[in-house]
Amino acid sequence: MEEKKKFVPNKQVTEFDKPFMNMIGEKLKKLRMDQHMSISELSKQTNISRRTIQLIEEGRVYPQLQLLLSLIHFFNIPYLQFFSELNSENL
Q1: Tens digits of residue pLDDT in 16-34
Q2: With CB atoms 3.0 to 4.6 Å apart as the test, which of 10, 21, 41, 89 could cross-link to 37 if both were Cys?
Q3: How far is the C-alpha of 13 from the C-alpha of 30, rounded, in Å?
């Protein structure tokens, strides 16, 4: 069995970065909910721990770029589209 990808945060989210990290987390949560998936289901399908997904969705930690890109890829959305929609959706 493949080991779950572990998240090693570089640092906790600062007050300055919190709005942006919240937008990323809310966007990922929306994508997950649109697929009618629980955090546990997403964790199983992406091999990313439930806790890591939860912390990212809550905007509490900086996700490693590779991890964030793998989540975006899982939802089959072009990276540029994901980030451009952060501003346009006014999350």
Answers
A1: 778 888 999 999 999 999 9
A2: 41
A3: 21
